[in-house]
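Input record, target 12 of the design panel.
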């Protein structure tokens, strides 16, 4: 029987920065820097293997991934039919800068972008690690909690992307008339960067929420409320431009639009130039903010954490 009780921040590997494993050698020298490179390489290979393990594990359940994709496609079709009816009922060609064709393209891009988003249950996974006491493995083994879960969920989502590429590619081909051609290389690069940064924003936001498990025994209801609000304020239900200007501008200052709205409008070419650079920089800033917040909450939570297990 093992008892782990933390009263101060532990000096072990969980107190190290995410994946960037080793400090620079103080004395310099070729041998010291070579040793640093070798240790850093081993760290990346370790978490790379975790990601490949998650990728292989998820591909073993391809039927489950296909079912998830069908449910997502059904949700997208429902949203598209709803907005077609709204445009017909309103009798207007454009609503807040979006005509019907652009709205359908936007909804398709939002649902495709959800392929790259962390699963809604990620925060509950973090809280469950704390509640069930399995967090102790990160304290007793050379594993970093955030590096482990980031590697695992990256592999998990990569498997979903691999399964979804063909059907979503077919959907985009069938719906190609709703787009103004294929965007330029710079726009595609910015779109991919927005999706990847959005994954990091969503991951570390979920991690910060999951750290509530240190202080509360059950956080399921809290996480459900957060996910429901996030679905609306991230622009997955409708473009934020359709809201009154005050609320639209306010929500665009928050991190949530980067989980749905921002990548879609980047692909559609509605955000360009300095506005695009500012948006990507802000998205990176939010990812760093939630990274720092989640680790801060983690270390504070460890001060009061106790785990029992074999």
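The sequence produced for target 12 reads:
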């Amino acid at each position: 029987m093992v008892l782990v009780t933390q009263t101060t921040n532990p000096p072990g590997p969980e107190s190290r920065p995410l994946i960037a494993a080793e400090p620079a050698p103080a004395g310099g020298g070729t041998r010291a820097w070579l040793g640093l490179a070798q240790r850093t390489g081993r760290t990346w290979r370790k978490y790379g293997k975790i990601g490949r393990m998650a990728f292989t594990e998820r591909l073993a359940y391809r039927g489950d991934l296909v079912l998830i994709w069908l449910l997502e496609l059904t949700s997208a079709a429902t949203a598209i039919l709803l907005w077609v009816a709204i445009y017909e009922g309103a009798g207007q060609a454009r609503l807040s800068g979006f005509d019907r064709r652009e709205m359908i393209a936007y909804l398709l891009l939002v649902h495709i972008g959800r392929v790259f988003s962390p699963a809604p249950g990620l925060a509950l996974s973090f809280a469950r690690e704390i509640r069930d006491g399995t967090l102790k493995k990160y304290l007793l083994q050379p594993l970093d909690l955030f590096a482990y879960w980031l590697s695992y969920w990256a592999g998990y989502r990569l498997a979903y992307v691999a399964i979804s590429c063909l059907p979503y590619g077919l959907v985009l081909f069938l719906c190609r008339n709703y787009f103004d051609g294929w965007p330029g290389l710079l726009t595609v690069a910015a779109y991919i960067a927005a999706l990847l940064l959005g994954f990091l924003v969503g991951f570390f936001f979920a991690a910060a929420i999951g750290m509530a498990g240190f202080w509360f025994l059950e956080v399921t209801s809290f996480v459900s409320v957060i996910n429901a609000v996030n679905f609306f304020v991230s622009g997955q239900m409708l473009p934020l431009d359709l809201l009154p200007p005050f609320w639209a501008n306010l929500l665009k200052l928050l991190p949530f639009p980067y989980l749905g709205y921002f990548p879609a409008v980047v692909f559609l070419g509605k955000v360009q130039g300095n506005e695009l650079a500012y948006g990507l920089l802000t998205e990176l800033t939010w990812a760093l903010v939630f990274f720092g917040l989640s680790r801060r909450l983690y270390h504070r939570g460890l001060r009061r954490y106790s785990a029992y297990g074999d």
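The chain has one domain: 59-301.
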